Amino acid sequence: MALNIISNYAANVAHRNLTASDTMATRSLAKLSSGTRVVSARDDAASMAIGARLNATTESLKTATVNVNQANSMLQIADGGMATIDNILVRMKTLAVQASSGNLSDTERGFLNDEFVQLRNEIDRIASSTNFNGIQLLGDGGDVALEFGDLASGAGGAALVPATGFDGFAITDNNYWATDANSNTVTDNNFTVEINELASGQIIMTVSSTIDGAADRSQSIDVSDYASGGTTAISAGENATLNFDELGLSFTVNTNFSATVTEVGAGTNGSTDFGSDTAFGAASIDSTDNTVTMAADNGQQLQQTVDFQVGAGNTANDRLAIEFTAVDSETLGSGSNGTQDSLADLTANAIDTAANAQSAVEVVTRAIDDLQRARANIGTYQNRLDFAGQNLASTQENTESARSTLLDLDVASEMTNFTSKQILVQSGVAMLAQANQMPQNLLRLLQG
After folding, report:
1. I want to staple 350 with a disulfide (CB 3.0 to 4.6 A). Which of 81, 184, 346, 443 is the partner?
2. Domain covering 59-138+309-400, topology
3. What is the pLDDT of residues 299-320, one digit of tens each?
4. 43-59 pLDDT, tens digit each
5. CATH 1.20.1330.10 domain span(s) along the chain
6. What is this structure's pTM?
7. For 295, which DSSP code?
8. How do the residues of the chain divide into helix, strand and coil, expressed in percent and rounded to 5?
């Protein structure tokens, strides 16, 4: 071909090939540094799309495995609670059998009955308090709230205000206030506060509870010393706490409480008692409006089923519904069809006579059977979750392998390719240098 000064065709060819070699070497380097065969869609659009879906599935399966482990933890907590209840039932049957014997007097049976009733209450406490992250496992929860306000709100308790000495109230035993056998939740549970002067001159504060709309129990505290000038009088700006443990309540009172106690003590024959006076004190407060009701927290109810996501999709097969059975005194003993007497039906005189004790033996025996059915149900789901976890592990492994086949880089092969591209780049650089030297030959002609 002709030699000319203006154009250097050989250098252009060398430069084009060098650029191509450098581009391929750069792409190869990108793959080696990232460890993936498909860095961008230009490498393999189909594999990138499939790989992205497989990668999302793999990560979802990892989360599903965590869900399975959490479900197993939940069931383990439920099983642990049932194991404790089982021990209690064994003890209750022992007491019932002992009380059935004719060699005991009613006095001894009374001792046994007290323990029997307390153990039944403990079953309810365990069933109420056993939960996982706020989800009830063995029975309805014990969370309740105070429905407190003024007369305009219809909630009542207008007399229990800072002006009469009451700064606040707290529920210290939710399980007690959650007790409710009817369908009205806990809104028919309430307590009233009275402060009365006795004939002896003592000032007594009495709190009475109502459960299911019926009077339940009351507790009294001598507050005589809280009167102004008394040994426990409350100074301005200070507070005191009155605990009514039997009712699961505590009251925070201020200096006005001392004034209220003093006002009650200044009356004659209870003429200014708090809780009966419609014009109490200088403020003429209607102290008969002294009732505070309870409000249910429905989030603490036992759910019949809890759905766990154990798959990566959005189908019924990707979820596992775990059923929970209540194991409180209302349920245990009622039998598989729920028509027989339960532990709660034994009332407070469960084993105070030989006849009652003999009936209690049958009820506790059924309760043990009911508990074992509920516990076996938990065990079934635990085994099922174990197999679900094994399947997730296998699926995750195979999905990861499929994604790896599509996207992961064969380092040995790509390193060989990169070495080839490096040689081409080095060769291109050398040849471009040679091509740039070719115009120098024309100088010899010009110098001739």
Report:
1. 346
2. f41 fragment of flagellin, N-terminal domain (1.20.1330)
3. 577 888 889 999 888 888 888 9
4. 778 877 887 888 888 88
5. 59-138+309-400
6. 0.61
7. E
8. 50, 15, 35
